[in-house]
Amino acid sequence: MKLQEKFWLNLNQIQNILLLDDGSLCRILDISKETFLKAKSKQRPIELERMDYLFDRLGITIDHFIEENYDIAQARERFMGEQYALPARYSYAKFSKSRTIINCLKYIELSYGSNFKNSILRSLQIDPRFFDNPERLMNINVLTDFCVLLNKLGLNKEDFVAMGKMSYIVNNEGPLGERLRSHRNVNELFEDICSNESKNFDLNFDYYITRVSNGSIHVGSRPTEMALEYLNHAELGSNFVCDTKLGVFGSFPQYLGSKASYAEKTRCMREGHSYYEYKINYSS
Amino acid sequence: MIHSRLKFAQIFRTTRKLFKYNQKELANRLDITQGTISKLENGSLGPDTVLWYQFCKEFDLVADITYKTGYLFFANKMTSTGLEFKMGLFSLDRTIKVREILPFIQSLEELGLIEDFHILLRDRGFDTDMLIIPEYFVPFDLILDIFGLANAQNKDKEFISSSVNHYLIEKLNLINYLELNLKDFVLHLNSEEPFFNIQKKDKNILVNVISDFRFSIEEQDALQTYLNFKAKALSLVLKKVFNFKGIKVLKHDNFSYLIGV
Fold it and tell me: Rounded distance, CA A183 to CA A178, Å?
C-alpha cells in the first residue's frame, strides 16, 4: 500500500475512534472543509503543520501516526484531556517513581531546550505534566525506552551518567536533600539510602552495602521478588539505565560536601553475575 | 506559518548539503521533482506529512524531534571535515561545536539580533545553515563575531547578562559531571579557551588576554566584551556552584579582569 493511502486510512481510523466528523476534524486542523475534501479525494496528504495540531491533541508523533505504532486508548484519553494517564506498556508493575526521570528531563531541557524534552515525551506518549510530581508511579520501561530514544539521537554513556548526577541539583534544596544532608558520614548516608531512601526512587530493586573501605563504598542490588513477579530479568532495565543509576549513586556523597565523587559498576546481572554492584568513590 | 516554512527550508537545505547531494539527487531519492525540492528549500512550500516522514527516514532523523526543535540530531557522532559547508573568510584552525555556542545564539535571539548575525556571517561567505547541527564543528572565531555584534549594537551589557545564565547552566552540568573542584575547573577553562589565561593569584583570580594572542584593531572591542563576559560568567560560577560569598569583578586594565574571592 502506498504511504499516501495509508495516511488517509489512518486518519479515517482516528476519526472513527474519536467520533469526529469531517467538520470537527477540519476545525482541529484549521483548514476549510472544501480543502480537506479535495485533498481526500485526490489522496493527497495534509500539510505537516496542520496535522501537528491533531498530533498535539492526541499526544502522538508523526512516526506513531504513519506506522500505526501507538497506544490508541492512551491517545483517546489524551484527546479527552486526561493528563496523567499512561500507555498500557508503562502501566503495569508500576514500581518506579518519577524522581529519576525528572532528573533526566531536567538535564535534556537544560542542554537542548523544552521543545526537545516535550518531543521526547511525546514519543513515549506521556504528557509532560505527568512529571510535575516526583511521587507519581510508572514502570521501569519508561526509563528504558527514554534512554534508547536518546541514544538514537546521539546521546551516550557520559550523558546518561550526567543525567543521573542531576539528582543532586534537582533534590539538593528539597526535603530529600535535607534528609540526605543530615547524615554524619558517607557510610551512614548509604545505610539510610539502602534501607529507606531507595524506595523514593524505585521498588524494582533491593539495595544493600557489600563492602566499605576508605574513600569508597560498594552497594549491591538485586531485583525485588515483587518486581520479578511481573517483569522478567531482561525487562528490568538496560545498560543505559545502569548508567543513569551510576550518576545518581555518584551524586549522593555530594550532599555531604564531597565535590569529587563518582560511581562505577563492578558486577552486572546482565553479564552473568548473581547481583549488580556499584562502587561509589568519594573524597572525604 | 512563514516562520515554520523557513525552518523546514533550512532543514532540507542543511541535510542535503551535509550528505553532499545536489537538488536533483535528493529529489530522486524522495521520488519528487527538483522543482518541489527547490520550493521546499526556499520556504515557498511546506512539506506534507508523508513527505516529511520519508525525508526523515531517508536520513535517519527522528521526524518529530527534528520538526519540533529545528535541529538535526544524528545517532552517530559527527566526524565531519567541515567541507560540506562554505566557511568563507573563517579558518578551521580552531574549532568549537555548535552546541557550545548555542547559549550565545539563544541570547542573540532574545535580543532580536539573530538576523543581523546571519547577515554578518553571510557577508563573510559563511553558510549559516550548519548552525542547526549541534554536533557540527564550526570556527571558534564565530564567538568574536557574536560579541562584536552585541558591542556594535550597544547591547553588550544585556547580551552579557543574558548569556551568563546560559553559560552557568552549561558549566553546572560540566562541573557536576566531571566532579571538578575549583583548581581543576580553572585548569579546564584554560584548556578550552584559546584567547585568555585564567590563573589563581593569591586569593583572587586573574583573567587576561594571553600575551601572544594576535588580533586586529576591529576585533579589539569584541575581545574586550568577551573578556568582560568571561570574568562575569566565572564569578557567577564561583558564587552559585562553589558557594563563594562577596565576589567582586574588577577591571584591571583593558585586557585583564580581577575576580576578588
Answer: 10
Question: Does residue B213 lie within any of the structural domains?
Answer: yes
Judge contact between B92 and B82, C-beta under 8 A: yes
Evaluate whether residue B79 is within a structural domain: no
B146 CB-near residues (< 8 Å, 6+ apart): B101, B104, B105, B108, B117
Domain hosting B16: range is 2-69
Distance CA B147, CA B227 (A): 10
DSSP single-letter state for residue A132: G
The neighbour count for residue B203, using CB atoms within 10 Å, is 7
pLDDT category of residue B171 using cuts at 50, 70 and 90: low
* Residue B216: inside a domain: yes
Say if B134 is an interface residue toward chain A (CB within 8 Å).
Answer: yes
Ordered structural domains, chain A, with CATH: 3-82 (1.10.260), 96-281 (3.90.1520.10)
Residues of A in contact with B53 (CB under 8 A): 3, 62-63, 66
Span A117-170, pLDDT tens digits:
999 999 999 999 999 998 999 999 999 999 999 998 888 888 888 888 888 877
C-beta of residue B181 within 8 angstroms of C-beta of residue B157: no
Pair (B119, B222) in one structural domain: yes
Q: Is A208 part of the contact surface with chain B (CB cutoff 8 Å)? A: no
